[in-house]
Write a structure and sequence with these properties.
Helices cover 36% and strands 21% of the residues. The protein is of the alpha/beta class. Helix 13 links the parallel strand 14 and strand 15. The model has no long low-confidence stretch (mean pLDDT 90).
Length: 402
């Protein structure tokens, strides 16, 4: 998989304007991406050279500069930014330009992903003897995706040329179908940067952790604060070692000093922390400076929630005014959350109401604990499955109309 980092697109508008390319690169690499694609075009995609450089510094896998290459200088710029590869869109170049830019890329030691949209463009591309051919299933004029386009073109890609399918790939079934057609790689962008965070919190045992991930949860929460679901550092460490790469593992703390939070996260092998107390801005900043993922919890509708953008965390979790009650609150309380805040809805969520919460708030993610339990600290497989399925369906629906 070539995993893409982009903030917005012409077809969908804003995707994830506040993303941190360094964090995204780390997550993609941990999840098994073979290559990264970073948008550097600012007018259409909100990208920059700084995004590519931040991603390059955070990963050991190759990085493609995704931009409109229309001059030799653009190829040189990709090299200067630290990219390992450059994009050449056949539809945007003459035959002479295509050959010239490809030769320059080779001279500079850059790979070139030569992108086509149909058989006629493929024939033009093959004249320069490329190593990589990308077939983009999105029409650049209408932005419509034809999910059969890559399959139709696949038969014309010669043996020895790596075929890369682009656009319209939303899951394993799509990837498997394209692999069967002969593609050796897929480039996935919008679906990854806009995929919802689904966090199952209050994990107390390995069985529930593996179950939640298998059902589609993207994050797990382990509670170190006094609670019916409190777990030890040693137990969490054992569980985390058995999880597949790419799962966001979060330790939940309440009013612990920053040094304790950092030490516990590291000893347990977690990737981030959730601060669920009355931590000061300075205390939150101390944790943020050391960890890749930090989530600050605030009470929906409270003065703290209204000023939540003072926290420099990756995510802000909005909990019920009565935390732990299991009762949902009025999601209209989140109507005034600043647009640049990555909002996570928590408090009283269940498989039956999570879709409405997502439709109402359109959050970055959702967080559930008691709503998927059969008893405190013990998850119910059926409830977890229904919760994840309902959340994903609602997210896909809101994304398609945004």
């Amino acid at each position: 998989m070539i995993a893409e980092i982009k903030r917005r697109s012409p077809s969908r508008g804003a995707l994830n304007e506040s993303l941190d390319p360094r964090v995204m690169a780390e997550r993609y690499t941990a999840g098994g991406a073979a290559c990264l694609s970073v948008l550097t075009d600012e007018p259409h995609f909100g990208g920059s050279a700084a995004d590519l450089q931040a991603a390059r510094a955070a990963t050991s896998v190759p990085v493609l500069r995704k931009d409109f290459t229309v001059s030799a200088l653009d190829v040189v710029d990709a090299f200067a930014m630290g990219a390992d590869a450059v994009l050449l869109i056949v539809a945007a170049l003459s035959d002479d330009e295509l050959a010239s830019f490809h030769a320059l890329a080779v001279e500079l030691g850059l790979a070139a992903l030569v992108e086509v949209h149909d058989e006629a463009e493929l024939r033009r591309a093959l004249r320069i003897d490329p190593c990589l051919i990308g077939v983009n299933q999105r029409d650049l004029r209408t932005f419509q995706v034809d999910r059969e386009r890559a399959v139709r073109v696949a038969g014309e890609i010669p043996d020895g040329v790596v075929g890369v399918a682009e656009s319209g790939i939303t899951g394993g079934a799509d990837a498997a179908r394209l692999a069967a057609a002969g593609y050796r790689a897929v480039l996935v962008g919008e679906h990854l940067v806009s995929t919802m965070l689904i966090k199952i919190c209050g994990i107390t045992n390995e069985e529930d952790a593996l179950l939640s991930v298998a059902m589609g949860a993207t994050a797990l929460g382990f509670v170190f604060a006094p609670s019916k679901r409190q777990v030890s550092v040693g137990k969490v460490s054992d569980i985390v070692k058995r999880l597949p790469p790419g799962v966001l593992t979060i330790g939940v703390f309440r009013d612990s000093d920053p040094k304790t939070v950092l030490r516990t996260v590291r000893e347990a092998g977690l990737r981030g922390a959730q601060l669920h107390g009355r931590e000061s801005v300075a205390q939150v900043d101390e944790v943020v400076a050391e960890l890749g993922w930090v989530m600050k919890a605030v009470v929906a509708g409270s003065p703290d929630a209204q000023r939540c953008n003072r926290y420099r965390t990756d995510l802000v979790l909005f909990d019920s005014p009565e935390p732990g009650s299991g009762e949902p609150y009025d999601w209209a309380l989140l109507a005034d959350v600043p647009k640049d805040i990555r909002c996570v809805v928590s408090g009283g969520l269940t498989p039956d109401n999570v879709a409405l919460a997502i439709e109402t708030v359109r959050p970055f993610g959702v967080d559930v604990s008691s709503g998927v339990e059969r008893e405190p600290g013990k998850k119910d497989a059926s409830k977890v499955r229904r919760f994840v399925q309902a959340a994903l369906a609602a997210f896909d629906e809101t994304s398609s109309v945004s």
